[in-house]
From TrEMBL:
Alphabetized GO MF terms: oxidoreductase activity
InterPro entries xrefs: NAD(P)-bd_dom_sf, P5C_Rdtase_cat_N, STEAP_metalloreductase
Pfam families: F420_oxidored
Lineage: superkingdom: Eukaryota
Name of the protein: Pyrroline-5-carboxylate reductase catalytic N-terminal domain-containing protein
Residues annotated as transmembrane: none
Every Pyrroline-5-carboxylate reductase catalytic N-terminal domain range: 33-128
Residues making up the signal peptide according to the UniProt record: 1-18
Keyword vocabulary terms for this entry: Oxidoreductase, Signal
Biological source species: Cylindrotheca closterium
Amino acid sequence: MQLVKAILLPIFTTLSLQANEQDSNNNYCIMTKIAVLGGGSVGTTLAKALSDSNKDVVIAARDPVKTKAKLAEAKMDELTVEASADALKSSGVVILATPSMAEDEKIQEFAKSLGDMSGKIIIDATNPLDSFPEGLNVRWGKTTSGGEVLAKALPAAKVYKAFNTVGVEHMEAALGKDMMFAGDADEEAQKIVAEIIKGVGFKPFYIGPIRYARNLEAIAELWIHMAIPPLGAKTTSRDFWFSISGDP
């Protein structure tokens, strides 16, 4: 254990020093680079929101040229794009906005493909979706969430689940809505994740360790069930979200 601490402490000390300043509004100022892995609607929306809030953010792409062309068509060519390997290596925070993976083996393979994530903060914005109409049902027969499987596969990283309980339209106009997140107990890392959530426009609310990704993924299943026909609920809109009321 002492050896592990000796290896990881310098990494997290550096990350903390980069991110431990506060501005006049008492916001935690993030100086570390953020890589968003995933060039789809979720990834680009999160990247744009963070860029607009003056965060150092890049989109990590397998094909940077193709991704840049896509962003230009969407009039978001101000966003920075880098090759995935370079972006992940040079960033202190990685947001996963990739296609869903339902099975443990796929999640483990994906985690391995990321390379060395030691000392990095990983924010998992994905859900372990099976093919529709079953949706997230594939996890109900298991004892862990997709977030927990990812965290176990990346033991040297600080893994969090966030941004998975709403549709992309709410990321475009977060407007201070609640955003619950779960993950590592490290307070410095939590502050960084909370400030990233604020940067997108949400109000962060830490709910506990990564095991509570089970609850967040279940909330995501309920949102999908209610928002996307023909999954059973007689709803006509995606324009709703789950909030925390009272004074928890």
